[in-house]
Structures
1.
Amino acid sequence: MSDIPRVDARHSLDRYRRSVPIPSSPFIEDPREHEVVVARRQQLSFDGRASGTTQRVTLASAIDVTDWVRGTLVTVLHAKNAWLTAGGGNTTGQALFVAENIALDPDEPDVEYVDTSRTVASLSVGAATVTPLLLQDLLVPPFGPSLRISVRFTQGAAAAAAAQTLAVSIYLVGRTR
């Protein structure tokens, strides 16, 4: 069983990651906008495997965006260690933060139906990226009814000498009808 929080599609999505107005948020400019906190200062570590290996971590799943007409994926990069090879040069590692459309079926609540034809939004962090940094990408319509937020780490050809770590906060900011 996965340790990723899941939504039982037979019940209301209010039980998990429902968007709510947060008036004190620095990302909210309009009272019709809502913020979903996906992760706060989440520590991520990738072992630096070579040869194009991709590691994927789902950060949140089944985020209800059915009432949204527009949105933004916001990633705050708080910290990142040096992503170096054994020789001291930068690795070819890349962390890609991705928002994808998914749907849940009440008859199969453990299955996520993923729109694999495209991503809704994506933000990239590489070896040369410096901290602190704010990254934003608009959600490309059509999106919904639910989103999955994940990070895909691809090492590339140059292996890392040690674990590549970063600390991020991730938010979805959306405007309702």
2.
Amino acid sequence: MSSIHQTYNHGKKLWGSRLIANFVMVSGCMKNPIISSELKLCCLLSHPELTSIQVSESNVLINLVDMKQLEVLINQHRIWPCVYLNIIKHFPNLFPKALLDYLSKKYQKNVHQNHQQLITLGRVLHIFKVANIHAMPIKGVTIAQKYYKDIAKRHGVDIDIIICPDDFYKAHELLLKNEFTSNYFSQLKSHLKKIYLSMYKDVTYIANNGMILELHIRLQNQSGLLSQKYSAALYHRNMSENEYFIYLCYHSARTLHHRLKWLCDIVLMIEQCAFSWENLYAKAISVDAVRCITINLILTETLFKIKLPATASKYFKQDRPTLMLANCSLKNLDQPIRSETFSYNMQILRCNLKLVQRMKSKLLILQSLLKPNKHDINCLPNIPKKLSLIYYFLRPVLLINRILKTK
């Protein structure tokens, strides 16, 4: 009991202390409940505009941060635009010139890139509209326009568009005819393309101006409940704000909040939308996304001081996996795990299995592990169609081989 009490007293000094104390006492899995000054400052400076209170809080934290670690987190979380604009506006003399110059270059690059993305997005949507292909942009510049009120204030690495799966090959040919390239997917044989599309939710293209386009046929790789119910709503453009919020919560939680900018999107939606939390939770239950929402709401209170809705508070206190996942996300935000490693992929797998509650959802995730992926296809690209089942039989061997190579 003394160690728990000691940890609680530590937690009382922290930003978001009440919630972190709950993490420690209820889940017992948070080894270091302290949120670094660097992450606190990142959260403050990631706002599109700062209030006078946030300016004061930032002023205090600037004197406490390690500038190199701050730069690491800014890069990891891709929050360069808002951070740069807030520093220039409020604290131009409190940061090293080298960091300011670096952030200035990242900001200018983002301005140009987002402008080009908007042009490319309009072009693709026009191409699809003429061909009678239902399409809807998701995330990226559309979020920047609606919630940041300025496309230059949010970084987006690519353009995301979702279409009906039945229209995919038609859309694919149209993109190729309009100077888009998809070198990897285009070079696959027809039976391998089918295997690829059964495993992955999108195909990547490069426009002639260098912009990256991800063409989605669903919202999840494994085609879970959320994907089944919301994908069609998106490309038919009749998705509600509640449903879009649920999707964004899923998108950020599924990788333990690999990017802080995704949580920033959720914060802005909460601030600007009049959500009925009971109605939203009822919708989340239908797509097995209650834990996704609750984790995000826990983090928005802990890091952004947004009051936790009573519905979420009641839920997370009764659900140990939610607390454990929120704990893991908080640590990952502060001390990011290097992605594309075996240990990272295993942690994400465990995370996704805990995020869902229905056995059917868990089985869909596990079933996806049995399907060949692009690494398997790359290892054996010349297997003919009639022998395609070999991919499934050899997958365990190929997977073990990749694991051994990464060690």
3.
Amino acid sequence: MADIQVASHKMKLKFSHGILIVFGLLLCAGFFLRVWKLSESSLWVDEGYTLNAAQETVIHGYPILPSGKVYTSGFLTTYLSALTLKIVSFDPYFPLAPRLPAVFFGTGLIVLVFFFTETLFKNRYLALAVAFITAFSQWEIAWSRQVRGYAALSFFLILLLFFLWRFLETAKKKYAILAIFSLVFASLSHNLGLAFIPSTIIFLFSYRFFDSPLLLKRRAVYISTIVISTIAVSALIYYYFSIQGSNFISNYLDFFADELIIFLLGTLSVFIPDIFQKKYAKQIIFISLFLFLPFLYILIYAPTTQFRYIFPLFPLMIILTSFSLWRLTHIVFSDIHHAKRDTMAVVFIILFALPGLSFLPRGFYELENGSPQPNFKDAFGFIQKTGNKNDIIISPYAHMTKLFLGRGDYWLKTSINRIPNNLKGSVINGRDYYVGAPVIEDLENLKRITNENHGFVLANFTMKVRLPDVYTFLNADYRFRMVYKSFAPSRSDFIELYRF
């Protein structure tokens, strides 16, 4: 009997070491995919916001913009970007250095989801499957290559949940303190971190409930309450914003159906009674608390279609989807040895997630629809090569003009959506909020300025949709001649330059 126990222990160690070796290879592959040809793709609109603020931080010590306003979105991301600009001279045509922090946070997330999942469910096979999907997820890789705070936000949110769970297991206050610090850093990475404050408060005031016998007896009631409340409040939000003329909730649902249908179904499958096992009730309720309530906050926080706001929730969807398939495998193949079942589960999970995975390195990753990635690099390169000293640049993205050319010139007033109120705060004393560029308010203003000057007007797909009268005018007036057009390797996005 003793010999059998020793042999069994050695076999477990062998499997354990094997999983860790595979995990190490996953980590290397994940890092490689995130860093490969990192500077090849052009900087895009949102990266420009961060880098513009970072440049001002290098100059002034804090992100005060030329308009006199302080850039308050993602302080941590802004300061990390400023640090890279201090260490390496910034070249907008080769933005390797400022993108590196996102690479490290994205790679670190692979480590965190592995240990967080293992801590939750006490199964390294399941943890390995979650880490595998995170490492090769095209969406995860794409956002781990941008000068934005989403990769850092995801990292600190999983760290928050890891420390909260450790606090639940040990009742040691140090984990609660570390969780609060993680939440602070998440909120400093991106303002969306604030979406997790209500869930954190609820957990810290009711964590003893997770060990209550009532949880096990009425687990279906509690999880149903969370889900039904989410649906009910979403319906109210939908009704309110429908009155305002915005159908963004329908857009989010369409996005889930088109882009994340696999993980949506996998997440919802966790509520099937046989999968929602008594043994894992508190784990599922814990993750649901930090998945559904923040989703409601996102709907309220962003009354516009910004699919990237769902991105911080994606690791939790990966975990729940993987768990659902893991449990399903164990139910269907209950007569097979548990180690073989775990191996089969890992294979099924990876096959299930395969459509959303990317294994070959590339220099460009398409973000979700609504995150335009036109080729600013080549367009501004063309202006530098062919333009004259006295040319002016008119663009819906004055901050990108400043980033590439060192001056903002003129901002063509454009809303990021079709809600007029969305322009509030974008204009400060007749100048653009980000770089202090003079504002062209309307078509008549554009006609007057182009009559008095020479230069370029930059247009793209977003401008074509948001300012159709301006786009039609550029193509109809004989004074404007299209001299450049570039299609980005993304969804129907392009850049056009009109000489006048």
